[in-house]
Amino acid sequence: MNSFKKAAYQVLLKSGPLHYKEITKKAIQQKLIKSSGITPWATMNAILSVDIKQKGSRSQFIRTKPGCFYLNTYYKGFKERQGDKEYQAKITEKEIVDSGLNISIELHQVNTSINSKQKGDIAEARVAELITLYGNEGLYCYKPISDVEGIDLIVKRRARLEVVYLQVKSTYGDGKTRGFTSTVKGKTIKDKSRMLLIFVYFDLSNGDLFDQIFCIPAPDFLKLTQNTKKTSDDRIFTVGIKNPDKSKYAEFMIEKRELATKIVEIMDKLQ
Question: Beta partners for 31?
């Protein structure tokens, strides 16, 4: 049996760009990997995404659109291009850092003095951007004047009276240590499928959300975080940053650009 990366490489050699679920399906059918657990596709998505994030231009893979991967044709000629000064003059700052080229450059640093309220506002704004940018069926985001009931965003479908309510919880870190760690006040969770809890990790090392996020309907979240001791009504969400696909929440892990699609799927089920 191959590793997930080797399996994905072999599958993609014989195809065009594929969604990570289709890559996983073909890898299992071809007996390149074993179907371990109920979400092998989540493992595939996490492994390929982390490989791209960590290696950048040196990764064997590229993301062609949300949730879809293909082989990185640039990777094959990477070493030859390291000594090409004309090429070095054209590449972006991110590519320079990702590639490890011997060029001295100082990147912009994220402000480390922002407070918790500001962090929450930034995370909510990023989530609203993802929904707006990638909501092909037309989704609108509204921010309540007051969010004392735990509703950070209201998402409505265009030309329909269909809405879902989002509570966005964010964790800030350097992308290497810690993981998703959030406390959700029990009194703000409504046991209704129309309420969704969105957990995001903001990576201070690159100033953006981690590629994987969690979109969990409130009833499922309540079941997964049952407090048998009942010492508190609060619920704790904890997922390691290195292996988010190994958590009990893996079923609800998606690529961040798929959030709008996932919300539409949930809306369809609620009709």
Answer: none
Instruction: Report d(CA 186, CA 169) in Å as an integer.
Output: 14
Each residue's pLDDT tens digit, 61-92: 888 877 888 888 765 544 444 444 444 444 44
CA quadruple 258, 262, 263, 265: dihedral sign: positive
Number of Cβ atoms within 10 Å of the Cβ of 144: 12
Q: What is the pTM of this model?
A: 0.69
Dist. CA 51–CA 193, nearest whole Å: 34
Stretch (H or E) spanning 269: helix 259-270
Pick 116-270's CATH classification: 3.40.1350.10, 3.10.105.10, 3.40.50.1980, 3.40.50.150. 3.40.1350.10
SS (H, E, C) 170-203: EEEECCCCCEEEEEECHHHCCCCCCEEEEEEEEE
Domain ranges of the chain: 4-76, 116-270
Give me the residues paired with residue 62 across strands. 70
